[in-house]
Amino acid sequence: MSSVLTNGSLAIVVDGMKFPNPFVIGSGPPSTNATVIGKAFAAGWGGVVAKTTSLSDLPVVNVQPRYGKLNSPSGDTIGFQNIELISDRPFEDWETDFRKVKEAWPDRILIGSVMEKFEKARWQEITERSLAAGCDALELNFSCPHGHPETGMGAAMGQNPAMVEEVTRWVVEAAGGRPVWAKMTPNITDIRIPARAAKKGGASGVAAINTILSTIGINLKTLRPTPTVDGHSTFGGYSYRSVKPIALRMVGEIAMDQPGFSISGIGGVTSAVDAIEFILMGANTVQSCTGPMLQGFDMVTELGEGLAAFLEQHSFGNLQAAVGQSLPYFTTHHHLVELLAEKKRAKEVELANRDTEWGKKDFVAEAGALVSSKD
Ligand SMILES: Cc1cc2nc3c(=O)[nH]c(=O)nc-3n(C[C@H](O)[C@H](O)[C@H](O)COP(=O)(O)O)c2cc1C
Question: What region does 342 belong to: left with phi over 0, alpha with psi -120 to 50, or beta?
Fold first, then answer.
C-alpha cells in the first residue's frame, strides 16, 4: 500500500468524518460483504460505501447475466451496464459484517447504504440499526435506475423532490447527528432540484451520480438486447469511463448551486486524473465502483500518488485547498462570446497604438479605437 494513502498528506475532514484519503469505494460489488470491504481497506481506500441494503423482508432476486460492456474500436472497455439489484443478503448478516469491518478498520470510514419503501418506520429502523452496527454515516439510495423503481423505490424516489426531502428528514431524525448523504440519480433534467430537496431535508451532503439508464447493445443476429436473460432484457445502469463527463457536469452544477454542501463525486473514475477532476469540480470525496471491479482494488495506489503529486505541483497545502478550484472558470456561453469580443477590442487598441500598424485596416476604425468615450 502506498504510504500517501494513510500518512495524512491526503487526509480530509468531511461532515466531521476524518478520511485518511478521499478515495471511497462506491456502493456495489466491491463492497458487497465484509471480505471484499476488508480487501478494499487493505489496499488503502479511505472509505467504503457498502452495497445497498434493505430490511430482510424486502424481496430481492437477482438475474444473470446482469452485466454488459461497451468496448472502443481498439478494444478498451469504456462503458459498463448492470441490471443488478441491491444486496440480497439478510440485513442481520450485514449488521454482523458492519461490526466486523469497523472493529478491524477503526481508522477508515464505513458508510452504510440504504433503500426502502416509502414508510417512515422502515427508513428509521434501518438507519438506527446500521449506525448501531458501526456505520459512520449513511448514504440514501434514491437512485438505482432499474428493478426497484418499478415498485416506487430507488430512482423513482430520487426523481420526486418532495419524497427526497421527506425521506431525508426521516433518516436525519433517526441518525442522531451522524452524517447523511443522499445519492442522486442522473436520470433527471436538473440534478440541482433533488440536491436542494436533500439539503432542505437536513442531509449533510450528496453523492453524485448513480448510473445512467441505458441499454448497452443489441445482438444483431438474434435482435435481442443485452444483457439477455432468457431472451429478454431491461434498461439498466450505465457506468465507467464514458459517464465521467456527465458526472463532472452534474457535480459542478450542484457545487455551484450549493456552496459548502459536501459532495461525494462518482462516475467513471479510473485514474488519478479523473479523481482530481472531480475534486476541482467541488467534490471533497471521490467514489469509484466499476473501476475496482475492472481494475482491482490496487488502483487506489495510482490515485493516491497522482493526487499527492498534483497537490505538490500546484502548492496546495492540503487537499481541502484544491476542492472546487476549477468552478470559477465556468460561465455562460453568452459571457464567453463577450469575453472574445472584449479580447478583439483590446487587440485593436493595442495595434492602433503602434504607428507602423496604422492604415493596414479601416483607418477610421483604427482612429475610433483610440477614442476614450464612445458616442
Ligand atoms: C454492478 C453494479 C452494482 C451497483 N450497485 C449499486 C448499489 O447497490 N447501490 C448504489 O447506490 N449504487 C450501485 N451502483 C452504482 C455505483 O455505486 C456508481 O454510482 C456508478 O456505477 C457510477 O460510478 P462508477 O463509474 O465508478 O461505477 C452499482 C454499480 C454497478 C456497476
Answer: alpha
Q: Decide if 289 is catalytic.
A: no
Q: Give the alpha-carbon dihedral of 104, 107, 108, 109, to 10 degrees.
A: 110
- Residue pointed to by grid coordinates 432484457: 233
Kindly provide the residue ranges of all beta strands, DSSP E only, lying in 58-136, ordered along the sequence: 67-71, 77-82, 109-114
pLDDT in tens, 255-264: 999 999 999 9
Q: 161-174 and 192-200 are packed helices; what angle lies between their axes, rounded to 10 degrees?
A: 30
Q: Which of 55, 110, 144, 197 is catalytic?
A: 144
Cis peptide, bond prior to residue 209, ω within 30 of zero: yes
CA geometry: angle 311, 314, 288, nearest 5 deg: 35
Q: Evaluate if residue 375 carries a pLDDT over 60.
A: no
Q: Report domain 3-325's class.
A: alpha beta
Cell 461490526 appears where?
99
Return d(Cα 258, Cα 199) in angstroms, integer. Answer: 9
Ligand 1 pocket check: which of 181, 246, 289, 299 to mutate, most ligand atoms within 8 Å of Cβ?
Answer: 289
Q: Which of 62, 53, 51, 47 is nearest to 13 (CA)?
A: 47
Q: Give the C-alpha separation, 173 to 125, whole Å.
A: 11
**How far, in Å, from the CA of 114 to the mean position of ligand 1?**
13
Alpha-carbon distances, residue 40 vs 32, 82, 273, 301, 306 (angstroms) = 11, 21, 20, 11, 18
Can you give the pTM of this predicted structure?
0.94
What are the boundaries of each domain within the chain?
3-325, 333-368
28 CA distance to ligand 1 centroid (A)?
Answer: 5
Answer for the pair 123, 170: CB distance below 8 angstroms, yes or no. yes
User: What cell numbers appear for 203 in the block?
Assistant: 442531509
